[in-house]
Amino acid sequence: MSTFPASGPLGVTSLRSAAGAGETRPGERPVAPVIKARAEEFEGVVLGLFVKSMFAGVRGGSMGGGNAEAQWRDLLCDEYGKALATDGGLGIATLVATQMQDLQDQADARTAATVVTNSTPYGKDHDDFHG
User: Fold this and answer.
1) Which of 60-64, 68-72, 118-122 has the highest mean pLDDT?
2) Is 90 exposed, middle or buried (0-12, 13-18, 19+ CB in 10 A)?
3) Cα separations (Å) of 99 from 36, 69, 90, 114?
4) The pLDDT of residue 34
């Protein structure tokens, strides 16, 4: 059984550098902490699915195999995905967070434009005769 090195042509380090994870790019703007957290959760789910697909062909395992291990393997893969995402992941969270922040900024701009357009002393639908 062969294993891949942590760095090198197929290692996690090379994947991170290819994806630009952990790097601050010129012109990159910060995102809201809640958006960053949700994007990291999403990356954890995606990486968990990757890990599950890697373990799909593995028979037995480190805990002796059997039905109990098969039942808990999905949860273990989910936790591996979360740990990988928390440790920097592949950069998926950065890309998703940037897109989510862009969408939030656009929604905020539309809301601000609507408030300015509809601002009157009593509101848009106020009728002086009917209160």
Assistant:
1) 68-72
2) buried
3) 11, 38, 16, 23
4) 93
Q: How far apart are CA 40 and CA 12, in angstroms?
A: 17
Tell me the per-residue pLDDT of 35-50, one tens digit each, with 9 for 90 and over: 999 999 999 999 999 9
116 neighbors 44 (Cβ within 8 angstroms): no
Distance between alpha carbon 22 and the CA centroid of its chain, in Å? Answer: 14
**pLDDT, mean of residues 70-78:** 85
For residue 77, what are the contacts with CB-CB under 8 A and spacing of at least 6? 48, 51, 52, 55
* Residue at 16: amino acid letter: R
Question: Which two three-digit tokens encode residue 120?
Answer: 């009157």
Taking CB atoms within 8 Å and a gap of at least 24, the contacts of 49-58 are: 49/81, 50/81, 51/77, 51/80, 51/81, 51/84, 52/77
Q: Can you give the pLDDT at residue 48? A: 94
3-state secondary structure of 7: coil
